[in-house]
Amino acid sequence: MAKPLDYESLNENVKKTAYAVRGELYLRASELQKEGKKIIFTNVGNPHALGQKPLTFPRQVVALCQAPFLLDDPNVGLLFPADAIARAKHYLQLTSGGLGAYSDSRGIPGVRKEVAEFIERRDGYPTDPELIFLTDGASKGVMQMLNAIIRNENDGILVPVPQYPLYSAAITLYGGSLVPYYLEEEANWSLDFNNIRQSIASARSKGITVRAMVIINPGNPTGQCLSEANIRELLRFCFLENLVLLADEVYQQNIYQDERPFISARKILFDMGPPLSKEVQLVSFHTVSKGYWGECGQRGGYFEMTNLSPKTVDEIYKVASISLSPNVPGQIFMGLMVNPPKPGDISYFKFEQESKAIMESLRKRARIMTDGFNSCRNVVCNFTEGAMYSFPQIRLPARAIEAAKSAGKAPDVLYCLKLLEATGISTVPGSGFGQKEGVFHLRTTILPAEEDMPAIMESFKKFNDAFMEEYEDYRGYSRM
Ligand code: DCS
C-alpha cells in the first residue's frame, strides 16, 4: 500500500503544479555549471546574483538592527553615518524585542504606517495602515489572496497570457481554474477587451464563476507599461463583471521610457470617483525584490486592500497569523524602500547616486537587448518599456518544430536547450509563461552587467543565425 508521502498518494494539486522559472532549463543549466561550464543565469530576475551591488544606506541600517550591540560601541559613529544610526534605532523601537522577535502577523505597525504614507504620496489618496499587510516577498501575498478567493475548481481567475507562473502555479495548488486572456503582442502587449470578454464568456459557458482578474504592470515576462486608458477600461470592466482586481505592481520602479510613467491601479480607481472608487475591490502588491533595490533574498513585500470589508480583512489576518509573522528584516527593508533618505539627510546624495546609476544602466541594457534581438534572423522583440525582461518571439522553421516533436519536447524548449548548450545563456522557454498556439518565445532578464551585454548578444546572434541556417528549408516558419 502506498504510504501517505509516496509520490502516488500525494495531493494531486501539488503534482499538477508547474513552475517554469526553475524548470527543465534551469536544471540543465545547473548540471552544466557543475560540469564546469560558465552559465549566464538570465532565467530569474535576481539582480544581486548577476552582480548588482546592494544600496549602502539600507544595508547599514539593517546591519545595525541585526547587531544592536554595535550601537553601544563608542566607535559606531566612525563606521556608520548618523542618519543610518538614527534609523536603526527607530526600527528597533518599533519592534517588540528586535529582529529576533516575531512581529504582528500583518507586520510591524510602524512600518505599515510608513507604507501607508508612501502610498498616499504616490497616489494622492490616503490609506489606512490596517489595510496593509507586510509579507515575505510579494509571492506570499499573492498566494494568501488567491487562497482567500478560490473556493473550488469552478472558481476562475483571469490571468494574462503570457504570465508570470506564480499565478498559474498558485491557482493549480489551491484547486481553482485559470481563465487565460491573451495580451496583444502586435499592440505592444496591451489588453484587448473584446478578447477578455470572449475569455470570460467561454469560461462561464463551462460553468466557471470568474471572480478575480490579475494584471502585471509593468509586465512580466512581456515588459510593457499599460496606458492609463487601458487601466481605466480594466477597472470599468472589473466593476461591471464583479471581479476583484489583483494588481501586481512589483516592477513599478523599473520604467525605461518616458511616455508612459507608472500609474498605480489604485490612483486611477480613485481618480475615477464613485461608484467605482467605492465599489471595485482591489488588492495591490509590491516588493523589495525589484526596482533598483533588487533585494530578492530579503523577502520583503506588502499588499494593500481597497474596498474590502473589515470582516474579510479579519479573516485574512487570521490566516496570516497561522504563519505567525512575516520575516522581520524583510519588513525593515520595506520600510526603508518606502521611506528612503530625503534631501538634506547625510546619506541622501550617496543613495541617489547609487540608485540612479542602477536605473540608468538598466535603461541602457533594455535598449541593447531589444536592439540585439531585433538584429537576429527570424526574431522580433517589443521594446522592454519596464520590468526586467526581454521576451523575443522566435519564428521557428517547420523543420525545427518537427525535430522538437520527435525529441518529445516543446519547440521553444528545444531552442532554449540548444542555446544553453552552445552559449551558456540560461533562459526560460515562452511555453512556461503561456503563449498563443503555434507562436514561440523565450524570456531572458536584462540583468547581466552592462559591460557583458554586447558579448552576450553577439553570442546569442551567432547561435540563433546558425540554428536558423541549420533548420530552414522551403516549408516556412511558425506563424507571427
Ligand atoms: N510578481 C511578479 C510579476 C514577479 O515577477 C515576481 C518575481 C513576484 C511577483 C514575486 O517576487 P517576490 O516574492 O520576490 O516579491 N519574479 C520572478 C521572476 O520572474 N524571475 O525572478 C523572480
TrEMBL record:
Q: Which residues cross the membrane?
A: none
Tell me, what is an example of a GO biological process annotation in this record?
Answer: photorespiration
Q: Name one Pfam family in it.
A: Aminotran_1_2
Q: Can you cite an annotated GO cellular component? A: peroxisome
Cite the GO molecular-function annotations of the record: alanine-glyoxylate transaminase activity; glycine:2-oxoglutarate aminotransferase activity; L-alanine:2-oxoglutarate aminotransferase activity; pyridoxal phosphate binding
What keywords is this UniProt entry annotated with?
Answer: Aminotransferase, Pyridoxal phosphate, Transferase
The organism's superkingdom is given as Eukaryota
Q: Could you confirm whether the keyword Transferase appears in this record?
A: yes
Q: Does the entry feature the keyword Transferase, yes or no?
A: yes
Instruction: Specify the pathway.
Output: Photosynthesis; C4 acid pathway; Amino-acid degradation; L-alanine degradation via transaminase pathway; pyruvate from L-alanine: step 1/1
Tell me its family: Belongs to the class-I pyridoxal-phosphate-dependent aminotransferase family. Alanine aminotransferase subfamily.
Oligomeric state and interaction partners are given as: Homodimer.
What is this protein for, i.e. what is its function?
Transfer of C3 units between the cytosol of mesophyll and bundle sheath cells to maintain a nitrogen-carbon balance in the C4-dicarboxylic pathway.
What is this protein called in UniProt?
A: Alanine aminotransferase 2
